[in-house]
Amino acid sequence: MIQTALIMIGVGIFAGIAGAILGIGGGMIITPILTLGMGLNIKYAIGASIIAVIATSSGSTIAYLRDNVLNLRVAMFLEIATTIGAIVGALLTGVLDPKYLYLLFGCLLVFSGWNMYRKLRRGQEVLQRVEPDKIASKLKLNGSYYDKAEMKTIDYQVENVPAGFSVMFGAGVASGLLGIGSGAFKVMAMDTFMKMPLKPSSSTSNLMMGVTAAASATVYFFNGSILPGIAVPMALGILGGAVIGSRIMQVLPARWIRIVFIPIILYIGIQMLGKGLGVHF
Amino acid sequence: MQEKQSATATEMAQVETIIGRILQIGVVFSAIVMGIGLVILLATGDSGYAGHAVPLTMAAILVGSWQLKSYAIMMLGMYCLILTPVLRVVVSIYAFYKERDHLYVAITTAVLIILMIALAIGLTGK
């Protein structure tokens, strides 16, 4: 029993650090370790993932709020889209064939991966437009953050608010219908569509993930999908890992985070396309 | 324009500090409760329940926690953790209200209402 607890704490620390830096839920890391590595039933792995997402979100958000990295207005405004999407997704269960969603989101993620690669090649992280976006100005979405790697304050403008809002709605539907953590979609919506810099995108995604996950967590909590002996040591590890990760992320150059992010987003995208086409690998 | 922007920035810094502090209290509290449950489990080797059973109603969790059953305390801690993002939304409404940002009081209230509907669907759905 002590051995299991120690392993789960270790897994948690790793997932917490990675999740906090990249802005994705721990599900992607936790699920394969629990199912393939420890032979746990997928039902319990999903239950543990939901707890993992909330622990990553709340653990990392403390530092991101204090150090002013995330964009609270963008998060609040877009949460309208993700929470409505999550409800629609939950209601569509059994009505809509998830195949089409897998195909759609698989394509979007691959597109986003390509787009991020182009950004990387261009070597320019922050775009400054001369003409401010009308909707973004009205909603006071434009922001700034202090980049500890570059040691300067970076002002940025937010664009394409309707497109970002739509992708966020889709991310909510996906998390409600497919039960997947939608951190990768959230980073994509802000980074690729709304042209936000990567660090505010990933930290804002972390903040939003918790709210989306909390909506579905109660279902899993009361239907017995959550094993305390597994989920609690993991959650404690993640909280610690997320606190560490949220500090590491701020001193990492955005370029490096992007280099790690691109293969992950492509991997999830290709995996989803595979599911949509009925190919398993 | 410049002045207005910096006023927005200080306002945001204050809002974020308030929310960050409350979130920190919530996270530390849930971690302590989960930690106590885990320590009891590891020290006694007893989940407090027969076989692999887990308390699944709020009443069973509260009664079990009172009786210091490890699984019940661990579930209680996880429930508190699940509530931390909801707590964050509630505190955000207050923080925006204090900064007289009515647009974002409305937006955040809308998020809270939608979240409550989602929670209600979740509770009755299964």
UniProtKB/TrEMBL annotation, chain A:
Record bears the keyword Kinase: no
Domain of life: Bacteria
Membrane topology reported for the UniProt record: Multi-pass membrane protein
Keyword Transport among UniProt keywords: yes
Keyword terms of this UniProt record: Cell membrane, Membrane, Transmembrane, Transmembrane helix, Transport
InterPro entries: TM_pro_TauE-like (IPR002781), TSUP (IPR052017)
Location(s), subcellular: Cell membrane
Membrane-crossing segments per the record: 6-30, 42-64, 70-93, 100-117, 163-185, 229-249, 256-274
Family in the record: Belongs to the 4-toluene sulfonate uptake permease (TSUP) (TC 2.A.102) family.
Designated name of the protein: Probable membrane transporter protein
UniProtKB/TrEMBL annotation, chain B:
Keywords, alphabetical: Membrane, Transmembrane, Transmembrane helix
Domain of life: Bacteria
TM annotation in the entry: 21-43, 78-97, 103-123
Record-linked InterPro entries: DUF1634
Presence of the UniProt keyword Membrane in the record: yes
Protein name per Swiss-Prot or TrEMBL: DUF1634 domain-containing protein
